[in-house]
Amino acid sequence: MKKMTALLLACSMVLCVISGCSSSPKQSSSAGSPSSSPAPGGSSEPGASKTYKVGFSNVWVGNTYGVQSVNELEAFLKNCDQVSEYYIYNADNDVNKQISDIEDLIAKGVDMLILQPISAESVAAVVEEAYDAGIVVVDCTSPLADATDKYSVSVVAKDYDFGYIGAKWLCEQLNGEGNIICLDGMAGLSSAVLRMEGAQAAFSEYPGIKVLASEYANWDYATAKPVVENLMAAYDNIDGIWSSGGDMTRAAVEVWADSGRDWIPMMGEDCNGFLKLWCEYKDEGLSCIATSLPTWLFAYGAELGLEILNGTYTGEKDIIVEIPTITNEEVEDFVRTDLSDSFWCGTRMTEEDIVALYGNGKDGSQGLSGTGAANDH
Amino acid sequence: MRHNSLLQRAGRLHSLQPLILLAIILVMILAQSILVPGSLTLDQLLIISRQASALGIIALGQAVVILVGGIDLSVGTTVMMVNIFCITGMQASNSRVPAGLLLCLGIGLMIGAANAVGVLFLNIAPFVMTLCTTTICQGICYVYTQGAPTGSAAPFIRAVGTGRLLGVPYSTVIWLGLAALLWAVLRFTTLGRKLYAVGGNPKAARLSGISNRKLIAGAYIFSALMATAAGLILTGYHNIASLTLEGDYAMNSLAAALIGGNAIEGGRGGVWGVVLGSFFMMLLMAMLTMLGISQVGKLITQGCIILAVVAVQQLLKRD
Asked: What pLDDT score was predicted for residue A48?
């Protein structure tokens, strides 16, 4: 019995020491950030002298959008003098891998942790651990607020707005009168549901707008093509096409061009393949809008994270990014006929990085470091 | 002589099923013209035939594999792999089409041969063997494209996938041409009879001096080559490289072959039933889209209708 109590005591003492150790860096770093804050005007001055390690825990790089999002972040980190080292990890949609990725980044001693949480609840504990250790935690694309408030800043673009803006534009193009078909994303996925909710909110503002049909085409070109063909066979009175984005509108434009019907307004996302077709048929009367969920969201998060580290950040904790759009007047400025179709045009990368990643028929998946955007590096 | 009459008897038993399917298709077309007025045009049916051509060609290969008592789940991935390598191999230039075609042919031959070796020499069940090649090829595609395939098809391939001959899509012409060829081989040559024999009674076939292994290996390679052809046509039709192109081709080609009256245990079945089965599958999907049935309802309806069709066929067959 005595031995047991002694053991327990010893254990608890060890624990105290450990927890004491882990809480001390927090104090030192939180003491460190105000020291640089007194000079908000000359942010580059104290900043340039101080460098940081940055870690990024991503969900998945399974499509061109995911690839470019990582590339934009890497381009930003690579070009930033204040970043001494960076680590990019992909969890491949696996919650366990994401948790161990973040633990690994904490162990590597990063000053800033950028993450796209797979599920806010499952990463909350490890995110709190990072935050308590004094790491600046930047949450991107999906909110953490429901599970924890221990993060420094959150940068989110709203799918609802994405759907609403495109739908509103369609209704205005049609002067509030007309029949619309909708190409929906994937059944049951929250971003598809939210985009559709946004669209319906806009449609309901215009009583003259009628939704003829709404079909799931999985944001996918190959799935959308027969769907549009079949919808065209069923309805000869389609006045506009709303799309949940991805690569579906490109298929719609191709089918429409094949059919020889008069052009109607269509909504799409800012991928280069679609923009190329849009420009090709613009003079024949195709009118479009491209809304986008910015690929530079992670890079923007990193920018804000650095400001927090430098003590110059004055913005809010939860930021909702406005959805960028490309209109008929602007499309020629955005389209890149010299680059591959998998390029997303609303980029913030430098021309040099863009050409290195997407020029000469490359698709960006090789990444800036050459190890491949999908690999941990 | 006796062999011939046996074959005819087997043929008669099953010649009814494609006819029932044809009747069902006609009823569906009629229903479409009533439910969605004005939608029924020759052009719409031709568009559906174009949508069905890839599945149709795959199903021809699948039918032959089923005929010899096997099953091929790797057809969908073969399509995807051909799509990706066709586009990277040809680099959107007509001058590289021959090299690209050879590359795709090589891929098809390799997948077919791998399936054959696994099934025949390693004695792995066809279901498992072709499932293994499926996942291996999927892995290769993901690694090769890094998850983000790009590029577009060469103009020649594009023309094959989207062009029309006197109004009929090339892909439909190719599909029906291949079907006619396969029908002729099965119906009029000794090779065709041997295929039926191997599937119907492998032991008897072997004792009669038929080289079962060669025929079964040939069936897997034929199936892979048909999937290769479908992959090329789909590449031309879609003009992109995509990791989603494999779709449900493995299951849908099986369904098309079985709806068409081919027996899963092998040895029985024809070609035209499979052709109608493929057309039926695409027509059903197109109709459900036209009728604006929601996704959930669509899946349920699709399952129920396929079930009903097969049930009707079974009931009528017994009479």
From this structure: 52
